[in-house]
Design a protein that fits this description.
160 residues, alpha+beta, SH3 type barrels, five-stranded antiparallel beta sheet, two-stranded antiparallel sheet, 7 strands, elongated
Length: 160
Amino acid sequence: MGKKATTATVEAAAVQNTDAAAETAVQTTEPVAPAESAGDKALETAEARAADAEQARADAESRAVAAETALKAAQETAAPAAYADYKELPAVVAASLGLNLRTGPSMNYGVLETLSDGAPVTVLPLPYGAEIKGWALVVSKPGTRGWVMTEFLTEPPAEE
């Protein structure tokens, strides 16, 4: 065979091999589903996160309702026991310049009113026998409750 024949034979074989490879590729290729776009994936992710957040909110709300119910039940059963051994005590203000009735048990709290020397007050019990050294929770008149320094309270005079 000459040089031309050899080249033609090689070219024919190459074409046959290319045709066979193409036919094999067509036969073995399975249909491909359209690829999801990045937007579709992001939307699915956002929807899943929103569903998770909604479930978490519902769970938190359910726990809050349960906690509130438990707190109310505890208050209803514990409150009477907390004050059982404690009674309101009458007292009298013993401060010639008056005594400040405050919003809390400290000089840092605001003044509600100034009680005059000799003014009657009722010392209220604190729950569970709590004590705030140097301070008492009192009622000076109906609807007015506040804190005073105990050093300026005395027992009322004995009634005859």
